[in-house]
C-alpha cells in the first residue's frame, strides 16, 4: 500500500464560501490534511510525494479551455488590480447561452462554476494540480502492481466536471486516476463514490462511456448538495447507458441502512468485473460532519473499508470530502486499515 501526499495543498487557503447568504471560511480547509497525516503517522504508514506530470494529462478528462481558465484565472484577477479570493455571482441558467465562452473574467468565472462555494485564490491552481498529481501517482502505483494506493488529495475533485468547477473541486482527481488506469492498459475500471455528496463531476466525465463504471451512494439530491444531479434515473447515455448508477439515500441514514445499499452496489460492481477500482473516499458520511446528514460512526469506517477491500481489486483511494476536522484522520485511517 502506498500513501501519496503533496504539501502544496496548503497554497489553496484563505477563501470564503457563500453559505446560506453569508460569506464564511470554507469548510474545506488545510487543517483537514494535518489531521489525516497525523493519523497516517500514528498507524506507522509512510507518505511519499508524487512526481510531476505534464498538464496535457489533465486534458484526458477536462476541456483545454477550462484548464487554461483555471491556470490563468487568479493572475488575470490580479492584473485587474484585484486581490484575495474569487467567487462567481452570475451563472448561465435556463434560457441563457452556454454555447460561447464570454471574454470578461467575471463572466468566465460564472460560466465555468456551478456554485459560489469554491473560491479561487492565488495558490489554487498549483494546489489543484498537485492534488491531481497525487491521484495520478496513486494510479501509477497500482499499475506497477501495488494492491492499494491512497491519494491524500486536497482540494478534492469529484464535483469537477469536464469543464466545470464547484463543491470545493477544480480538477477531478478520481476521474484522472481512472483514466490513467485505462491509459495504462486496463480495459474496465470502476469508480465507487462514497462521499456524502453525489459525484456529479465524475458522472459528467464518464456519462457516455462503458469502460468506466461509475457508482455513487449519497445523500438524496432532492434536499442535499449538489441538488441538480445524482438521481437514480441517471444511468448514462449512448454506449454509457447503464454504466452510471446512483444510489441516493435519505437524511439520517445509519450504518445498517447504508450497508444494505453498499452490499447491493458492491455486488453489481463485482459483476462488471473491473480490473481496478477507484474509490472517491469522502468521510462526510460521518455523524459529526457539520454539513452532512448521514449517521455513520467512527467504528463504521473500518467496516466500510473491509467490505470494499473484500472485492479483492487493485484499488486507488482518492480523498474527497469530510469536514469534521478533528475526526477526519481517524475516519480515513479506519477505511485505509482494511487495505494497509
Ligand atoms: C467534496 C465535497 O464534499 N464537497 C461538498 C461541497 C458542499 N458545499 C455546499 C454545502 C452546502 C450544505 N449546506 C448544508 C447546511 C448544513 N448546516
Ligand atoms: Zn462531500
From TrEMBL:
Belongs to the histone deacetylase family. Residues 28-337 form the Histone deacetylase domain. GO terms for molecular function: histone deacetylase activity; hydrolase activity; metal ion binding. Keywords: Hydrolase, Metal-binding, Zinc. It comes from Lysobacter arseniciresistens ZS79. This is Acetylpolyamine aminohydrolase. Its cofactor is Zn(2+). One of its GO terms (biological process) is epigenetic regulation of gene expression.
